Amino acid sequence: MHIIVAALAAYLCGSIPFGLVLTRLAGMGDVRQIGSGNIGATNVLRTGNKKLAAATLVLDLLKGFVPVFVVSRWWPELAGLAALMAVLGHCFPVWLGFKGGKGVATTAGVCFGIGWPVGLAYGAVWLGMLAPARISSLAGISAAVAAPVAALALGFEPAFPFLVSIAALVIWLHRANIARLRNGSEPRIGGDKAA
Questions:
Q1: Tag placement on the chain: N or C end, fewer CB within 10 Å?
Q2: Quick one: pLDDT band at residue 191, thresholds 50, 70, 90?
Q3: What does the alpha-carbon distance between residue 142 and residue 80 come to, in Å, rounded to a whole number?
Q4: pTM across the whole model
Q5: Cα(77)–Cα(8) distance, rounded to whole angstroms?
């Protein structure tokens, strides 16, 4: 029963569509009607409201961190499962017909929930790729791939298979971005299209 409770709670927490909620509360309409149609911070940034995008980023990170942190205190062996379910909730929220974001910020949150060294590694790779390239998708994919490697190297082995699954999901959700990266048409931060 505790496995079901942990998985369901993490999924529901991860499924809260903060990007959509915040843009609607701000009177900016449905964020799914602009850019990539995603509900994440990168697409919210394309509304032109940087504060709203920053708030979405922080909240999407927290909805990954909180369930993993709480579950790890009650049932440490289920932290990895909670991480995967929180990211699945963000990417496939029941409230939006299972059409959500691409999981980058929420994955950052679950990494910090698993262990701050893993979260720092994720953040370092993300920033290290984003700063010079200014390509959100490239930074997110790189960080997601680095997360399981960091978990394995830093002593968080139980989380490894779950982080591998999350990385695979992030890569799959970015398959169109990867195609654009290959042909050189992937937009940079500040462009019209979302990454």
A1: N
A2: low
A3: 20
A4: 0.89
A5: 16
